[in-house]
Design a protein that fits this description.
Strand content: 5-15%
Order of helices and strands: EEHHHHHHEEHHHHH
Distance between the termini: 29 Å
Strand order of the largest sheet: 1-2
Structural class: mainly alpha
Shape: globular
Radius of gyration: 19 Å
Length: 304
């Protein structure tokens, strides 16, 4: 069943879009991630222009993150003070990312930038996640307990604040920088940034794991929402029809993913996720390296 997407200006099978939403929803339920880093490349593969895929995906991130955040608020595993500090950096980062995005769009290079960002970050994160998961799997089999990492450098920085729920007394500078970096990525790549923020909050800031997910979701909701608004008002690249189809599939898929994820070990889930991240990264890299069938495209003057 073909459906025309008015903003993307392409016709795509509606069942295919629902299936993509369902697939990423399953992954979201299994791995506890927003799924933006998987959904956006998949949209590239089915012919959605990168600019539209990035802007539209931010809407799905807001909806899925808000739903997950409610459960964490009930369990009181959200550090609102830390989330607010992260949010300050995230909003500034989103604004800077939009400026970079718009500038490169005016030069006709935004598609290349988005694809390169995905290849670089998915490759790095996937490789690190795969290695860490293998180590964790070996430790679990040998019965060794993982040692908690201490952050000595952060303790020396000024402007300290007490975060009671996280049990930390650290400088606000590292959380602001982490939020800023994730905000830039959210604007350019159309991701919530959880696949970068969560490891940074655990290993860089030293937050307890049980608080990290909920706090990350709190920040992501506002940053992704702010990013979606900026894209909609400055670039006009948010396709409501596309977002609706992805949301429907994602909500249904998340229910199945939660059931599947509860029956697998954490180390197995991380290795499986790392493998899928590396596969997507490889496909994007291959598309950039292979010579296209048509070297030129015909379009209105001033557009790429």
């Amino acid at each position: 069943m073909q459906i025309y997407l008015p903003i993307a200006e392409v016709s795509v099978n509606a069942l295919l879009l629902l299936s993509l939403g369902l697939l990423v929803g399953i992954l979201s339920g299994m791995f506890g991630v927003g799924g933006g880093f998987m959904m956006t490349p998949l949209l590239f593969f089915v012919g959605i222009p990168p600019a539209v895929a990035v802007a539209t995906q931010a809407n799905q991130i807001v909806a899925s993150s808000f739903s997950a955040l409610l459960a964490h608020l009930r369990r009181r595993t959200v550090d609102l003070r830390m989330g607010t500090v992260l949010l300050v950096g995230g909003l500034f980062g989103s604004a800077v990312g939009i400026v970079i995005f718009n500038y490169l769009k005016s030069l006709g290079q935004v598609d290349l930038l988005v694809n390169l960002c995905y290849v670089v970050f998915l490759g790095i994160i996937g490789a690190l996640m795969f290695v860490e998961s293998l180590r964790a799997l070996r430790k679990s089999r040998s019965g060794a307990k993982a040692s908690r990492r201490k952050h000595t450098t952060i303790q020396k920085l000024p402007l300290k604040m007490r975060f009671r729920i996280s049990g930390l007394y650290i400088s606000v500078i590292p959380p602001i920088l982490v939020g800023f970096f994730v905000g830039v990525l959210s604007a350019i790549m159309g991701v919530g940034g959880g696949f970068i923020m969560v490891p940074a909050m655990i290993y860089l800031l030293g937050m307890p794991t049980k608080v990290v997910i909920g706090t990350s979701l709190f920040q992501i909701i506002f940053v992704a929402g702010f990013t979606a608004i900026l894209h909609a008002t400055t670039n006009y690249t948010v396709d409501v029809v596309l977002a609706l189809l992805l949301l429907i599939g994602g909500v249904i898929g998340a229910q199945f993913g939660t059931i599947i994820g509860s029956r697998m070990k954490a180390e197995q889930l991380r290795i499986l996720l790392a493998g899928m991240v590396l596969v997507v990264c490889g496909k994007l890299a291959l598309d950039l390296l292979i010579r296209p069938d048509e070297l030129y495209s015909v379009g209105p003057a001033g557009q790429s």
